[in-house]
């Protein structure tokens, strides 16, 4: 009988042996499966010393190298960091500035999910799960990010509506968002903005576009996860429940547990062999990528420009983050759930978010150029 999961197998054909190479690389925390395919095509991957080709499968005992560095299966790890300002969202900064790598345990190599500007504080996720990271970052999966924004000037409800409906930026119209005026004074206002894109410096550019430059910016939520109870500079592992909620938000089925006698094992006994990552398990609702939701209260904008927005197929954030991942391919260390920030070399952070300390200038920026995808 051909496997129901491979419609191209003919009766008598043996099912393929081993794991797809791109899945193995993604499981090693190096990158997403899609980008792993690109790396294979680029000739950056070897299996047992020979150049790998697309379609290859690997079995236990094979030696896989990406960019010359041996990679292997890793237990997925997830951390939430309250990134202070003054820290760069990269693992290695050529200019020698303090990086987020100093704020998470160094016995496990995890990569930032997206990017927060050097002057932005707040919730940053770090993981070695390349597939989930890719889904969290890519706008087509619609995972939201919420920001508290201190801006110059008094923002009216009508102006906030402009943010919600979309504003024209140099790299195109922004997608529908949620925008709330939390507090409006004559000189400053506090906004709460929820977006599901991640263009470079997007929130700063959106606020600038409506005439209210950002003074301070902090991310307070990523998908279903909120930043609560973490001091600036502190990090902690995500709980199992948070990981489940994050996977669901990214359109992935719950991760299987390999503990003996687990629910997953009992299901496997009842329903057959385990599914691959992302496949639904019997009894689960089918996992779908969330679609960007239009804002209910959106009214037609005053502008006569056509407003269209489509998720872009390839994100330069993916590419930028990828550089970090590529640089660190293969780092596999043991977990340590406790972490205290290490001594940093850069100046201390200014604060943890809007209203929490000195008010710096807007637009400090990270090392990446404008127009790239950010957090
Ligand atoms: N938008 C920005 O402008 N900066 C960030 O750091 C994140 C989102």
What does this structure look like?
The longest helix has 12 residues, at 316-327. The protein has 375 residues and is α+β, with helices and mostly antiparallel strands. The chain is built from 8 helices and 17 strands. Mean pLDDT is 75; it is low at 258-262, 264-324, 326-338 and 342-373. The strands form 4 sheets. Strands 7, 8, 9, 10, 13, 14, 15, 16 and 17 form a 9-stranded mixed sheet that branches. It has a 4-stranded antiparallel sheet with strand order 3-2-5-6. Strands 1-4 form a two-stranded antiparallel sheet. The protein is elongated and about 75 Å long. The N and C termini lie far apart (48 Å). The protein folds into 3 domains: 19-71, RNA-binding S4 domain (Structural Genomics Hypothetical 15.5 Kd Protein In mrcA-pckA Intergenic Region, Chain A, Roll), CATH 3.10.290.10; 78-237 and 293-327, Pseudouridine synthase, CATH 3.30.2350; 253-286, no CATH class. It binds uracil. Residues 116-117, 120, 201-204, 217, 374-375 line the site of uracil.
* Residue runs with pLDDT of under 50 for 5 or more positions: 258-262, 264-324, 326-338, 342-373
Shape designation: elongated
Report the major sheet: 9 strands, mixed
What is the number of helical segments per DSSP (H or I, 4+ residues)? 8
Give the domain tally.
Answer: 3
Indicate the CATH class of the largest domain: Alpha Beta
Taken in chain order, the helices and strands follow as EHHEEEEEEEEHEHEEEEHEEEHHH
Bound molecules: uracil
Helix proportion:
10-25%
CATH topology of the largest domain: Pseudouridine synthase
The total count of strands amounts to 17
Q: Which oligomeric form is depicted?
A: single chain
Beta-strand fraction estimate: 15-25%
């Amino acid at each position: 009988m051909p496997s129901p999961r491979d419609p191209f197998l003919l009766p008598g054909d043996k099912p393929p042996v081993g794991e797809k190479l791109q899945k193995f690389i993604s499981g090693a925390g190096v990158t997403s499966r899609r980008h792993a395919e690109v790396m294979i095509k680029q000739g950056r991957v070897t299996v047992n010393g020979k150049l790998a080709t697309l379609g290859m499968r690997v079995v236990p005992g094979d030696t896989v190298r990406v960019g010359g560095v041996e990679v292997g299966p890793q237990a997925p790890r997830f951390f939430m960091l309250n990134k202070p300002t003054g820290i760069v969202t990269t693992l290695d900064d050529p200019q020698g500035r303090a990086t987020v790598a100093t704020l998470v345990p160094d016995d496990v190599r995890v990569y930032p999910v997206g990017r927060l500007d050097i002057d932005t504080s707040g919730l940053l996720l770090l993981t070695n799960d390349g597939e989930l990271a890719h889904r969290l970052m890519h706008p087509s999966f619609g995972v939201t990010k919420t920001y508290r924004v201190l801006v110059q000037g008094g923002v009216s409800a009508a102006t906030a509506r402009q943010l919600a409906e979309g504003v024209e930026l140099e790299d195109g119209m922004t997608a529908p968002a949620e925008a709330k005026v939390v507090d409006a004074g004559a000189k400053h206002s506090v906004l709460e903005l929820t977006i599901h894109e991640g263009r470079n410096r997007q929130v700063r550019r959106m606020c600038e576009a409506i005439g209210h430059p950002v003074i301070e910016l902090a991310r307070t939520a990523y998908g279903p996860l909120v930043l609560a109870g973490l001091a600036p500079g502190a990090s902690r592992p995500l709980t199992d429940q948070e990981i489940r909620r994050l996977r669901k938000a990214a359109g992935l089925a719950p991760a299987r547990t390999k503990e003996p006698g687990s629910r997953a094992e009992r299901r496997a006994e009842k329903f057959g062999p385990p599914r691959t990552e992302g496949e639904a398990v019997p009894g689960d609702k089918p996992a779908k990528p969330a679609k960007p939701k239009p804002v209910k209260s959106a009214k037609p904008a005053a502008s006569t420009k056509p407003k269209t927005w489509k998720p872009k197929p390839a994100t330069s954030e993916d590419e930028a983050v990828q550089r970090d991942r590529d640089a660190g391919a293969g780092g596999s260390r043991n977990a340590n759930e406790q972490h205290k920030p290490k001594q940093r070399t850069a100046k201390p952070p200014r604060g943890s978010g809007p209203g929490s300390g000195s008010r710096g200038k807007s637009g400090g920026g990270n090392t990446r150029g404008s127009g790239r995808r950010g957090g």
